[in-house]
Amino acid sequence: MATSFWENSVVQTAGYYTVSVLCMVVFLFIFELVTKYKNWEEIKNGNISVAMATGGKIFGIANVFRHSILHHDTLFVMIGWGVFGFFLLLTGYFIFEFLTPKFNIDQEIENDNRAVGFISMIISIGLSYIIGANIQ
Asked: How far apart are CA 55 and CA 12, in angstroms?
């Protein structure tokens, strides 16, 4: 029996990929709004700390979508988990900022403090594994 067009694995992969990339663009835009610096402008100027922090966010978002795709059959459920995972990553960002009252995370990253940029990256990656492990 032939499978329908929407059940074809190539079509499904293209769909998941396209939706994940579009969601990532939206989520990175939201991150751009909540940070006090301009991510892409800083990266263009060679700010390694911003590149690490942004790279961690990209990896974190992609990892959440990876787990969501592995555990769900429908595109809409995958999007729902992706959005929820992004909300948790964003919450983690604010908790990181709150737990470091002696200095401003955004300011340190903007000033290319690579230690802070690295920790920010690892927090995003680490939280994405925790979020992904809980997607059902």
From this structure: 26
